[in-house]
Structures
1.
Amino acid sequence: MITPDLKIKIGSLEMKNPVTVASGTFGYGPEYADYVDLDRLGAVTVKGICAEPHIGNQTPRTFETASGMLNAIGLPGPGAQGFIDKYLPFFEDYEVPLIVNIWGKTVEDYGRVAEILGDQSRISALEVNVSCPNVKEGGALYGTNLDLFRTVVEEVRSKTAKPIIIKLAPNVAGIKPFAKAAESCGADALAVMNSYPAMAIDIETRRPELANRTGGLSGPAIKPIAVKLVWEAAQAVNIPIIGMGGICGPDDAVEFIIAGATAVAVGTSNFSDPSTAVRVIDGLERWMADHDVALVEELRGTVIA
Amino acid sequence: MKQENTTVLEHRLFHGDYRQLTLAAPAIGPLVKPGQFVHLKIPRLGEAVLRRPFSIFKADDQGISILYKSIGKGTDSMRSLQPGEKVDLLGPLGNGFPPLGAGSTVPVLVAGGYGNAALYLQAKTLPVQGVAFFGGRTAADILCIEEFEALGWDVRVATDDGSLGTRGLVTAALNPWLEEQRSETGDPKSSGLEHLEVFACGPNAMLKAIGDIALENNLTAWLSMDRNMACGVGACLTCVIKRKTGTGWEWARCCKDGPVFEASEILWDEN
């Protein structure tokens, strides 16, 4: 039996395996360190950071639904400098590559946070959130309007030499134009997909379950949507895709890679089982060995469709 | 904090609709401090993506037990757990209750419903026993009187329907007792109650009422706050409450920064 090599590359970022965690589901790093050996992961992706501290949404912020959950956390965070001061030193004790998710209220905001964090040698790549469904300013608008989308990607590209990963919105008529635009504006990779805009209502009070009224749906409920979008985006671009949406085990990761993903991210499943990402890594290696797949690259995009 | 695949040792009807679930958890049990909680993955609840948090009622080197009643799909599903079954736990989580403060001589426990599950270990650990106030809808909602009395606590009860103890909310029993305790200190700034220290767990409205009483009387009161949680470990920022700062407020996570907060820290607006 062969011993598979799980190494992959996202631009200049080398990952020893193709498994990271989805931004927003893994805190800023320390939160899960008691439960997961972070150095086992291909990369750690931390919660969205903008240039300035941000307060986020009122509560309630999450609501469990069938095979999924809604969230409208609203990207509270310590700001770029706050992240550097408070959380970056924690990663000095680890070797795992660090991907920082960034967002802004304005195009200039995106540039500023990219510039500040881009100077930090401990950070391996920036994931650009142009698709948060839960912030009023900017947020999803940059992910669904192609002109604004290009402006943001160009701005971030002009401010950092680090690999940039553009996290795409699922709620667009077609994902290919956005995938292509990101690639042509210099993105190193795509993250597909963000949570899907959704809503739940308490039938007794007739009020939305979330203070923000609507939120983003994540978890196994959205996996088939994400697989389709990865499959479509992979046909449109040559840059790598990090697939995410409802990954709970190794089989899910294999499915995303067959659809066209180079890497995958475990999201909501971290909440129910913090060991999910490590299980995915170990299970993926076993699956590849069992199927005589030596490299992730051999499996990628092999869907017969 | 650990993730442990525990085994059901015992699962029994405790009192009224309340059940006690005892789990063999040799990794988590010895780490437990009073007021902490566990995050439990309910087996056979396929469509649920989240765990459910439960206060730790009892703990020892072999494991832990919790008290619960059916309030929804998750707890309904838990009722079928059988001895020998596996249950995945994260824990112990949160900071729990602090020890009795240096200036305090009489600890006071206040619980609404099965909030006293979260107070039992504190009652057992405190160096002196004081008075415990339990409130509930009916006599069937008042648990653990014998357990607390066996530890030497003076238990006072209030029920909404008057079926046990004073009729009314728990404050109907607490407030007259506080007046009895009030001592003349000669200091106009003193409430005469500063020798008391309160530890409370229960519904939000009760905690707010206790917090208000504490603030009015310059009392230290430790409130175990309950908010909907997703991750339980401080990552998702679901269970936040507003905590006062020098200049305003900040979000504090019930799961990681709490669940116990001192009453004067909490900004109740919109919580």
2.
Amino acid sequence: MTDALLTAHGVTKSFGATPALHGADITVGTGEVLAIMGPSGSGKSTLLHCLAGILRPDAGEVYFAGQRIDQLNERARTVLRRDRFGFVFQFGQLVPELPVVENVMLPLILAGVRQAAARLRAAELLDRLELTGLDARRPGELSGGQSQRVAVARALVSRPEVIFADEPTGSLDSLSGQRVMDLLVDAARDQAATVVLVTHEARVAACADREVVVRDGRVSALVGS
Amino acid sequence: MTRLAARLILGGGREALVRLVVTALGVALGAALLLFAAVAFPALHAHDVRAGWLHTGPHNVRPVQDESATDPLLFRWTTDHFGDQEIIRVDVAAEGPRAPVPPGLSRLPGPGQYAVSPALARLIAATPADMLAQRFPGQPVETIGNAALAGPEQLVVVVGHDPASMRAFTGVDEVHSIEGAPVRHGYNEFLRIMLAVGIIGLILPVIVFVSTATRLAAARREQRLAALRLVGVTPGQASVLAAVEAGLAAVAGTVLGFAVFAAVRPYAARIPFDGDTFFPTDLRLSGGLALLVALGVPALAIAAAELSLRRVRISPLGVARQAPRPRPTWRRLILLGIGLAGFAVALPVSVADNGSQSSLVLVSVTFVVVIAGIVTAGPWLTIVVGQSMLRLLRGSSAMLAGRRLQDNPAAGFRSISGLVLAVFVASLICGVLPSVMTSGSTKSIPQPAGTVSALLGGRQATGIDPATAAALLTRLHAIPGVTHLTAIRRAPDAWTVAQAEPHEPAAPALMTCADLIATAVATCPDPGSVVAVDLHLLGMVDNPSRTLTRPVPPGTLDTLPLAGLIVATDGHTATLETTRTAIFAAMGEGQASVDTTADANAELNHRLIQLQRLVTVALLLTLLIAGCSLAVSVAGGLVERKRPFALLRLAGAQPADLRRVVMAETTAPLLTIALVSAGLGLALAAFVIRANHTAWKPPDPAYWSALGGGILLALALSAATALPLLGRLTSLHTARFE
């Protein structure tokens, strides 16, 4: 594994009386594609959300590029997510009111990039992800595979250091899912981005450099290296 | 952020635009109603200000003229009627060139001249002279200006006289200035308190409606903002986005509300809320009020939107991970208890204080606490309703509805809160009014309809000489439609009667027993005899004839002055007004007081009847707004729960089952909590009445029908909106995409 970019130590998280993570430990290297696997309810999505600064752990520590991020306030974590992370979820992450191109431009616009430059970069990614000609469509007018590719384009648009993907192919057929994964991993590698991928599908996990398994809130097994 | 928000709204396609338009329309309706509520009391006050001059007297509260620099003016104000319309008649006589001139006139009409309001001028022109114009001696010389008129339809005449003849009139004041102070309300302290309560009661459902309209499709907005939070929108930026989105719709709605207000204002001015219509300028907004509504409505909408987004700010995962809401417990009743206890203390204080400003504020504050208590207790009551449904009812619909009410009682109650508050306030006011009406009114005159009564020779009824009387009686007999004439004669002062009460006049009026029986007011044993009556109490029920101390032969009556008349007619307006005009014309110079049965009965409860009309209009309006709130809220709730409903449909639920779920989760809490609210309102009404040491009377049947009808109308409105929408949302074609 290369230098650690993202590290979690003893992360614990509960939702009310329901425990999700019990002292999970994990390290992700720079440029690595890591698959987090596990059965439903094992806590793998919660672990991803803690690593991405979406959720604050109840206990434990999370570091990104040497900086402890679990103690940052909400605003700082939001800026971190906007400027240095990208996200691809199973569904629901696109803004239905905005056309495809503006959905992709969104992180750049929020970061203060000029409209013209943002549009150019978005168009470039749309081409790359085989979405040419769809830029004026709204998310409701896309197929599942197209929606996920738009989400991947948006995740990549601000050249993030880490892409967090939570079941990115969960709602797709195997062929579309494979295509999305190939595009995601290729583009990430081109940008030297790290990918943290949550999935329960071995086929999807096979795209990763390394796999970990989360069971009962703990990172209980490592597969590969 | 503002640009992005505008892009999200305007670029969001048809659905976003429809949502914007519906929200804006809802806000517009609310804003327009608030504007009318805001101008209502200044407009009523304008009536009082312009009617102030009629109360001119020797000692004016706020003299318009410098009394040391004017000549005396003889002034008398009386009321007359034409049909069911009141005519205000002011007789004046200047005793010098510097006599004060009433508002709306350029100069005082001289002897043989009169000035009329535009409405009376039109009426005179459209009516035969012997029915109206002949009541006013002389020629019209001027049209009275708006400054002297309560409203454009008010009938006013100012009749000029020479001072010598006017001094012979009764009830004449010598004044040195015109009164400039507004009319003081005759409403007692209870009605003022109820008025304050009514305003709060009208405004609250409007506020609920504006909030409901703003929260329309809040779940959709939450999801959108959650998606934006994921890509890096900070909590502050999300808040700005929500504020801009809600604010844009609210600003558009408020602008539209002002436009609706301006468009409807001329028509609203024609509504005689207190008996008189308004000049459109009376409904003019002051800058402060306009600013308050212009800023307040968008602020309210933005606050409602921000409130609905609390959970989105917590996590970019949005609605997927909501913090569990604390379950409402019986402790929710505490605030209501505090409010009721405060009201119980504040009201008697206010009554003892004659409804002073500070005590009214105290009552209003405690009343607001009671209302806040109902709103706080509502979700707990909703849970109780849900539990009862699960315990008592069988079937999947009751189970789903009951579980939903238990799971999200706040949302369940929010839909019906406007209606529940409207029911509470309406019950309180309608529970108070019957008792106030009864205690404030006098017995109605029992004379048959179509009777004209007249006192001749001024209010003291000194009478007219027998020769003039004979001519008048002949003229009246000749009027088609007059069926019977009863002449009442003035007995000489030397004649006395056996007095039943010390205050009864010693010199009575006399009439034949047969005539007295014909009036149907009282009776006497010997139709052939002459009886003594108290002329001023002739209209009252318990006015037995008195026994004269000396017998009077019936033939003697024609030689005595004619002091009063009771004219029975066929009741047609033409007959009544011709009779009235003939009496006025015969008497000249306003020396008669003539009333029909309808005039007297109308005057008895005039103000309270107007108040009841005001309350009825407010009640209907409030229920209508609350019904709209319910419909919007139920429809919005359905859109937010589109997915679970669609999935239920896919899982095999029949459309009828889903319809029953939607109606059950609205109807059950609505009927139950509305019943509790009505009970609470009536209990408070009984308390209010007892605090006034008056016996409480339950509301009349009109209240129950208005209440039941209003709730049913609201339910029908929500069913008409929600059920077709439910059908569309859960059609198999739509559902399969969920």
